[in-house]
Amino acid sequence: MKPAINCITLPAEDLKKSLAFYRDGLGLPAQFSAELEDGADRTAFELAGDLWLVLMPRAEFAKCTKIAHHPDAPRGSSKCILSYFAATKEGVDFILKRANAAGGAVQGAAKDQLWGYFGYFTDPDGTFGKLCGSPHWLADATQANRKHGVAPEVGGSASCASCRDRSSASGPI
After folding, report:
1. Which of 51, 43, 4 lies closest to 157 in space, CA to CA?
2. Domain boundaries, the chain
3. How much is the average pLDDT of 35-62?
4. Residue 126 burial (CB < 10 Å; 0-12/13-18/19+)?
5. CATH of 82-170, one of 3.10.180.10, 3.40.30.10, 3.30.572.10, 3.90.1310.10
6. Cα–Cα distance between 47 and 51 in angstroms, integer?
């Protein structure tokens, strides 16, 4: 069995706001607790390659970190970057506008950089994200999606970056 990371869990101050951001802003398909009945303790998005993104109330998240004797992460701290691929510059700009309208915060205008066209955002809880506009990267993600039997979404993919066989010369994501 090939080792894999199957679930990324993020703390959320307000699950409804975070659900709206990831579902309506980034276009991720919510798989359960889609409308968040009162008392729901999490919501999840199934991504490609057996990868799940789970949002959990900060208090519940803190219970997990305490079990592992790990300190709580302050709101807005970034220990990782969530990267999202789009096929074009226009796709990056469109997703940034949609993410901003859904409660995220765009961190300046997207720009051409050495590895492609990038825009940055934070979700409603301050988790840092990056939109990558490069047909090459999206093609790699789409190929990985097909390998895992997942249909690619129009305009972008927040999936399966770990499945791509890339050389170190391709650069960081």
Report:
1. 51
2. 7-67, 82-170
3. 81
4. middle
5. 3.10.180.10
6. 5
